[in-house]
Amino acid sequence: MEQIAWPQLMRLGLGLLRLQPDAFWSLTPVELMLLAGVSEQTAPLDRDRFLDLARRFPDDAARKQMELDQK
Questions:
Q1: Virtual CA dihedral for 22, 27, 31, 37, nearest 10 degrees?
Q2: Are 66 and 54 in contact (CB under 8 A)?
Q3: Are 9 and 29 in contact, with CB atoms under 8 Å apart?
């Protein structure tokens, strides 16, 4: 199990973000990191990635059209 770095989180929440103690302690570490703008999420889906996914996983209408185009 991963340990939580409470001193650093407290400096972030109470110091940098200037949260009131009751607000700080009501947050989960994940919520605190989101408030701070830190996230492990990937970048939003851009058009090129969307088109790549649409080609790889077409819906039924698109699949039928692709099959017709290939004939």
A1: 20
A2: no
A3: yes
Long-range pairs, 63-66, Cβ under 8 A, ≥24: none
Instruction: Summarize the confidence of residues 45-56 as an average pLDDT.
Output: 87
Q: Give this prediction's pTM.
A: 0.50
How deeply is 13 buried, as exposed, middle or buried, from its count of CB atoms within 10 A (0-12, 13-18, 19+)?
buried
Structure tokens, 21:
């103690």
User: pLDDT tens-digit profile of 12-28?
Assistant: 899 999 999 999 999 98
Inter-residue contact 32 to 24 (CB < 8 Å):
yes
Please give the average per-residue pLDDT across 27-34, as a whole number: 86
- φ and ψ of 43, to 5 deg: -65, 155
